Amino acid sequence: MNKILTKDVFTPSSPAKLNYVFRKEVNDQLFDALYTSGKQVVVFGYSGSGKTTLVRNKLDQIYSCYIYSQCIKETSLNSLLLDAFDQLNPFYISEQGNKVTIKITDEIGVKFQNISLALKNENIKENSLKKVRLLPPQLTVQNLAKFIGNIKACWVIDDFHKVRPEEKQKIAQVMKLFKDVSFDYPDTKIITIGAVESAKEIVNYDKELEERLEQIHVPLLSNTELNNIIEKGAKLLNLNFTPTIKNKIISLSNNLGAVCHQLCLNMCLPRGIFQTRDNSFRFENEDLHYTIERYIKSKSGSLSDLFDKITMTKRTRSYENNKIILKAIIDLNLESVSHSEILAKIKESHPSYPQGNLTTYLKKLSNFGIDEEVLYFNNSTNKYSIRNPFFKVFAAMRFHQETSMGNNTFNINVNTGDISIKGNIHIDHADRIKFDIDSIE
Ligand SMILES: Nc1ncnc2c1ncn2[C@@H]1O[C@H](COP(=O)(O)OP(=O)(O)OP(=O)(O)O)[C@@H](O)[C@H]1O
Ligand SMILES: [Mg+2]
Known about the structure:
The chain is an alpha/beta fold.
C-alpha cells in the first residue's frame, strides 16, 4: 500500500487535496462557468464552507496554471495588480544570475519586460511609515488581462470580503475589462471568492456585468459530505472509524470541514498514526473521548478570548445584550432556535427586554465577514444555532462558572445537538479552566 502522510489527508487549516470530496452540484456549476468564455465568476458562502478548496481543486483539473491572490484588509486594487504581475514573472522572464532573458518574445512578452524594467527602476516611493510600490502607468488592467490570457491562465482573488469598501467598488470595473479581452483570450477570467451571503456584497455589478457574471453559492458541507471526508481519509490511511464514532464526529463538526478534519487528525496523532498503516487500525470510543477533550483544551485560549470579547459591554448599556442572548440560546438547549423562542427565554429573567435589541444583536452575532461570527442563521428555517459546538460547550461552562461563584468545581452537562457532554470543570487559582469529561454520548 502506498504510504500517505496523515497531515496530508486530514487538513484542518488548508484546502483538501488528497482527501478532496467531490461536490457534484457546485462542481458542475463552477465547471460550466469556467468553460464559458467571457464569464466572470463570484464564489460566495459562509466561512469554512469549502470555497477555496472547491475552486483550487477545479482549477488544478482544468487550467495548467492560474494566478492566485489572497486579500487582507490592506489590499488595494493597485496591490492586487502588482501581486498578479509578480506571479506572472516566471512565465515571461527567466533570470539566472545577472542574465535576464525574455521567454516569450512576441509583442506581449516585450511589453511585459518593459513594465518589469519600469518596476525595477523606479517603483519605491519612500513614505515616512512604509515603502509603497508604485504602479507603472503601463500596468493597466487591460494589459494585465492580456498577460494572463497569453499564458491561458485565469486569476483567482480570494477572501475579497476583507477588502475595504472603497477598493471593493473597483472590482466590478476590472471584471468588465477582463470580460472584454475574452474575444482574444477565451480562457481568461477573474474568479472572486468571498465569505459573504450574496454575490452583490462582493461585486457591485450592473446589468451589463450581471449577464456575464456567474454567481456560485457554496453551502456548508452536508453530513453526507463530512461522512465522505472521514471515509475517504480512513481508506487512504487504512483506518476504521466505527459508525458511532463517525456520527459523533459529524455531529460535532456542525457542517464545518475544518472541525471534521481536525477531529480526525486528533484521533490519529495520540495513536502514533502519522502515515498509512500497514494493518488496519480500529478506533474505540475512548479515542474520540480523548480527542474531544484535547480539542477543547487546545481551543480554550481562543474560545475564552472570543467569549470575553462578545460578552464585554460598555457600562452605559442597560442590558448586556450579547451575554443575555447567548445564555438564552444555551439554556434553551436545542440544536437551533427561533427569534421568538429566544425572546421568550430572555423574558423569563428580563421581563422588559426589548424585542428590537434582540433583532439587532442577533444580526451582529451572526454577521458575515468577521472571523468570530458566533451564530449561524439558517435562511430556510429562520432559526439560529451556535456555529462552533465547542464554543457552545465553553460558553455554557463559563455561564455555569459565573453562577457558581466561590465553588471551584462543578458539573457540566451540555447538549450540542445530539451530543451530550458530561463532566466536571475546575477553575484553578489563575482562573484557568480544567476539563474532566466523564462521558460523551
Ligand atoms: N470538498 C471538500 N473535501 C474535503 N475537505 C474539504 C472540502 N471542502 C472543504 N474542506 C475542508 O474544510 C475546511 C474549510 O475549507 P475552505 O478553507 O476551502 O473553506 P472556505 O469556504 O474557503 O473558508 P474561508 O471563507 O474561511 O476562507 C478545510 O479544512 C478543507 O480542507
Ligand atoms: Mg477560503
